[in-house]
């Protein structure tokens, strides 16, 4: 089990490294081509649109044919996207690169299903936390490398990302073993077998069911953070002396906090508070951090915001995903992880589009306050979550 997860974490790290190298550069590339904040929001959302469309399909593919083939295929699609990004000299090509990146990135639910397959149920949140730590470490190193490569030319970050993606696909092809087994896990809250479209509809039609509530919490929280964070460079460039040459280092701190929390604190916090209470704490921290962004006019407030947000996400996402993996049938785990990311993708479409428009018309900080309020409102969905958290993670009295 540990061998499988180690190879997967290395694969996820390098995959995220390539993506993180170019994300902070996107707003600067786009604005140099004449894009407004609204257009930047559209470019950011394009990734999520493609991801949400492809995630359930990747999940179904992995349920039928295996996690490994799905992951390898997604890596190769991503490599193509980075080449397009490298040579994009128009907004249309930037948009195309984002769409193709989203198609390749639709395998994120497959990655999480792989971890769920290979982990003991009681250790699943911690295993997902370690996976998140690996990807977060990629997010730490990637932005700084991307900003550094700018000195070698406009094309360099995209070409380097494509090379990393191809190399890690070769590595995974050699060392990554299949995780999916034919046996099925059952549980008290197991849902009935469904197709992808019915599973998506059930989240809307039956929002009070355990799996559906977890998906809604995930979707709103991930939209609140990842849907607004890519627009953060626009606010920072306006209020602080931050440019494309140094923005990567601030994003590096954001990712570094995520690595520290997931690798050093998450397991202990789960043992202390339990997954349900830790989810609630994470939602509060994320909401406060997002709201603080609106008040950033100094490096001190920026440091506070960039500390609270990764604390919140590090607590929320692994716990919610671990609980979801226990309340759905194992044979449909990939599909439901894909459905989770479909709704997360919808949220990551709506949030950056709304954020871009709001920045243009209502002020640079306004979207972050609204995102914080929406994340805080998901506390209403966390009632009774202790019923499907591991018993050993029961909170202390």
Unreliable runs, pLDDT <50, ≥5 residues?
A: 182-193, 391-397
Number of strands: 0
The first-level CATH class name = Mainly Alpha
CATH architecture: Up-down Bundle
- Sketch the topology as an H/E string, one letter per element: HHHHHHHHHHHHHHH
Computed structural class: mainly alpha
Rg calc: 19 Å
Q: What is the count of distinct domains? A: 1
Helix count, DSSP H or I runs of 4 or more residues: 15
Shape field? globular
In percent, how helical is the residue content?
over 70%
Distance between the termini: 33 Å
- Roughly what is the average pLDDT, rounded to an integer? 81
What is the assigned CATH homologous superfamily?
Answer: MFS general substrate transporter like domains
Strand count, sense and barrel status of the largest sheet are: none
The fold-level CATH name is: Growth Hormone, Chain: A
* Share of β-strand residues: under 5%
Would you mind describing this structure in some detail?
This protein has 397 residues and is an all-alpha fold. The chain has one domain: Up-down Bundle (Growth Hormone, Chain: A). It has 15 helices and no strands. It has helices at residues 2-22, 26-32, 37-65, 67-86, 91-105, 108-118, 124-149, 156-175, 196-205, 210-226, 232-239, 247-293, 299-326, 333-361, 366-377. Helix 3 crosses helix 6 (108-118). It is globular. Residues 182-193 and 391-397 have low confidence and may be disordered.
């Amino acid at each position: 089990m540990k061998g499988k997860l180690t190879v997967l974490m290395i694969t996820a790290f390098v995959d995220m490294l390539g993506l993180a190298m170019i994300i902070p550069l996107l707003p600067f590339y786009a604005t140099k081509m004449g894009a407004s904040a609204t257009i930047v929001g559209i470019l950011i959302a394009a990734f999520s649109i493609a991801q949400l469309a492809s995630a359930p399909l990747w999940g179904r593919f992995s349920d039928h044919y295996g996690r490994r083939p799905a992951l390898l295929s997604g890596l190769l699609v991503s490599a193509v996207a980075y080449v397009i990004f490298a040579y994009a000299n128009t907004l249309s090509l930037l948009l195309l690169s984002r769409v193709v990146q989203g198609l390749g990135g639709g395998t994120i639910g497959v990655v999480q299903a792989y971890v769920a397959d290979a982990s003991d149920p009681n250790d699943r949140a911690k295993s997902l936390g370690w996976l998140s730590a690996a990807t977060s470490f990629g997010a730490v190193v990637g932005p700084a490398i991307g900003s550094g490569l700018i000195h070698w030319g406009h094309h360099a970050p995209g070409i380097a990302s494509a090379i990393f993606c191809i190399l890690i696909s070769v590595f995974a092809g050699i060392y990554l073993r299949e995780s999916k087994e034919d046996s099925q896990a059952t549980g008290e809250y197991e849902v009935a077998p469904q197709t992808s479209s019915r599973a998506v509809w059930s989240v809307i039609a039956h929002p009070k069911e355990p799996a559906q509530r977890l998906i809604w919490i995930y979707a709103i929280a991930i939209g609140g953070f990842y849907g607004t964070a890519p627009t953060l460079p626009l606010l920072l460039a306006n209020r602080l002396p931050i440019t494309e040459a140094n923005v990567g280092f601030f994003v590096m701190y954001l990712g570094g906090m995520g690595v520290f929390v997931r690798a050093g604190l998450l397991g202990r916090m789960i043992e202390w508070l339990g997954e349900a209470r830790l989810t609630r704490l994470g939602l509060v921290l994320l909401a406060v951090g997002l709201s603080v962004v609106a008040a950033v006019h100094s490096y001190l407030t920026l440091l506070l915001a960039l500390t609270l947000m990764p604390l919140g996400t590090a607590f929320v996402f692994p716990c919610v995903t671990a609980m979801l993996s226990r309340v759905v049938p194992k044979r449909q785990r990939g599909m439901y992880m894909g459905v989770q990311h479909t709704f997360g993708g919808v949220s990551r479409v709506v949030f950056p589009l709304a954020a871009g428009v709001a920045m243009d018309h209502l002020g640079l900080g306004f979207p972050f306050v609204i995102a914080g309020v929406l994340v805080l409102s998901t506390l209403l969905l966390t009632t009774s979550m202790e019923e499907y958290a591991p018993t050993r993670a029961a909170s202390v009295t």
